[in-house]
Amino acid sequence: MNQFLKRRFFDQIAVMFGREARKPAAISDRAQEIHILKRATNKERLQQAMVAHEKASKVHTWRNRRWAVLIIANLMFTFSFWFDIQILEGALTASRFVGFHLIDLNSALQVMLAHKHIIVNLVIGTGTVFVLWLLLGGRTFCSWVCPYHLVAEWAEKIHLWLVKKKLVTDQAIDRRLRTGSWLVFAVLAVATGYTVFESISPTGILSRALIYGPALALLWVLALLVFEVFFSRRAWCRYACPIGLTYGVVGIFSPVRIKYKLDGCFHEGDCRKVCLVPHVLDTVIKGRAVDTEVPIGPDCTRCGLCVDTCPTGSLTFDVKGLSKLL
Fold first, then answer.
1. Of 273, 296, 271, which is closest to residue 283 (Cα–Cα)?
2. Same domain, yes or no: 288 and 225
């Protein structure tokens, strides 16, 4: 990793914890050359981008794959319970897949903080999940498995329609709130001896509702969705959910990521419009890329929406170290 990407790497971690993205202090010579060239040809390239994007915007390959995986994963819990086939038992917070214990990292941490000691059985189940998401990409869990993520994505479409009709405005919230939320729930677990977050987590509530049937807790999930539709786009996932931050930390070490290639980018900005966490794509803004190829930060959910949208293939899925061998 060169010095520009190394500095960018630590900047991306800071952004994940809530710092606002900013223009890089140093850019590689090769990237500088491309930035200068683009300034000279920008108008023509933008016109080309408008034509190319008309075709690209209708493609939803990765979104469809993601929705299919998410729905199937959650229905496996439901069918295993209803038909007692014992393939995937439990819920997303804690389960067992054909004998392998799987425990959500954030849930396990909350339990151990509440009990104030390390529980061996939790460590074993958590280790399995940690390795899984370490290989696939930490926040892949959010967009590819979490049931709240899917319903929030549908609510987002309603929100964007209302914004387009000028019936509501999208209110941004300080992203440092999520780090504060993580700390608050950790302190509450230690102070009360109770996993407070698990009682209000929309991920756990929806997972249990799908498996065991609806409960009053669904009213809390509905309230969150109403807030996101009429006030702030995807507020829970972007600004409050501790699960996203926990898996984001795992994502720091994950080999699977989205990679940005500077030379083919038109900088039309449509990738940032569709991104579920647009702060991770600050590198696509004109003049921000520190090198010709830049991996997107660990807070990325690997949802693939930007890959589907990019008309030139400047954003692609990549496995660290593997692409050079192919």
1. 296
2. no
Question: In this structure, what is the dihedral angle of CA atoms 95, 200, 138, 171, given to the nearest 10 degrees?
Answer: 160
Contacts of 153 (CB under 8 A, 6+ apart): 234, 276
Q: Is a pLDDT exceeding 50 seen at residue 326?
A: no
Rounded-to-integer distance, Cα 2 and Cα 8, Å: 10
Percent of the chain clearing pLDDT 90 (strictly above): 59
Interatomic CA distance for residues 72 and 249, integer angstroms: 26
Specify the pTM. 0.88
How far is 162 from 249, CA to CA, in rounded Å? Answer: 34
Asked if residue 318 and residue 223 are part of one domain, the reply reads: no
Domain that holds residue 131: 62-249
DSSP 8-state code for residue 20: P
Average pLDDT in the 235-244 region? Answer: 94
Average pLDDT value for residue range 3-15: 85
Could you tell me if 74 and 194 lie in one domain? yes
Same domain, 116 and 159: yes
Closest CA to 76 of 207, 181, 184: 207
Are both 104 and 230 inside the same structural domain?
yes
Residue 283 lies in a domain: yes
pLDDT at 275 over 80: yes
Q: Which band of pLDDT confidence, cut at 50, 70 and 90, is reported for residue 154?
A: very high
Residues 153 and 102 in one domain: yes
* 269 and 161 together in one domain: no
Give me the half-sphere count of Cα atoms (radius 13 Å) on the Cβ side of residue 96.
Answer: 9
pLDDT value of position 58 = 62
Q: How far apart are CA 188 and CA 325, in angstroms?
A: 48
Same domain, 153 and 189: yes
Cα–Cα distance between 210 and 82 in angstroms, integer? 11
In sequence order, the 6+-apart residues with CB closer than 8 A to the CB of 236 are 148, 152, 202, 224, 228
Summary mean pLDDT of the chain: 88
Q: What is the dihedral of CA 264, 266, 269, 272, to 10 degrees?
A: 0
Say whether pLDDT at 50 is over 50: yes
